[in-house]
Amino acid sequence: MTILELENLIKEKHYDLRALCIGSSPNYDERFNLLIREDGKYEIFYGEHGQKSNPRVYDNEEEAADAFYEIVKRDIPRTLFPQRKDPGKLTLSERFDGAIRNQKSTDKIILGMIIFCLLLGIFFTIVMIAVQRIDIWFFCWIVWDVIFTILTFLWIRKIRA
């Protein structure tokens, strides 16, 4: 296969692109590299701390691409998504979903607090309407709901932005 076919196959199979570098400039930051050298040869190696580990040189593009794909299949994990989206291009539902699935516990705690306060405000609003006690506290709960709705929206917009 060619290098272009290799790149397409890697994206199609959803391999983690953060662990790979294909091109003319090597990345020695803990990645597998397929380097197209100036002399027309292809070099495969693992870059770490500015050093090449286990470098192999190939004269043929197809041999290098096939060998690199074997390394990818063996050593690179697959991801759920082919590429990470730009945070600025995420929709509101994708941001909310990202907050829920986020591995950081601080984001989950903040999201939980916001949802709890919002539900608390809705509950007390319903209670006040049910007992027909519409006074200043009723309006305080309405303001509470509006403020937390706005904060939730703003927080989700800023998540991972």
Give structural notes:
- With 161 residues, the chain is an alpha+beta fold.
- Helices cover 52% and strands 17% of the residues.
- The protein has two domains: 3-75, no CATH class; 87-158.
- It has five helices and four strands.
- The protein has a four-stranded mixed sheet, with helices on one face.
- It is rod-shaped, with a radius of gyration of 26 Å.
- The two termini are 38 Å apart.
- The model has no long low-confidence stretch (mean pLDDT 76).
Name the average pLDDT.
Answer: 76
Q: What strand order characterises the main sheet?
A: 1-2-3-4
What is the share of helical residues?
40-55%
Mind summarizing the main beta sheet? 4 strands, mixed
Write down the oligomeric state.
single chain
Shape: rod-shaped
DSSP helix count? 5
Order of helices and strands: HEEEEHHHH
Low-confidence stretches: none
Gyration radius, in Å? 26 Å
**Proportion of beta-strand residues:** 15-25%
Number of strands: 4
Q: How many domains, in number, for the residues? A: 2
Question: Structural class from helices and strands?
Answer: alpha+beta
Task: State the distance separating the first and last CA atoms.
Answer: 38 Å
How would the blueprint of this fold be written?
Layout: H1 3-12, E1 20-23, E2 29-36, E3 42-48, E4 51-58, H2 61-75, H3 92-101, H4 105-130, H5 136-158
Parallel strand pairs: 1-2
Antiparallel strand pairs: 2-3, 3-4
Helix pairs in contact: 4-5
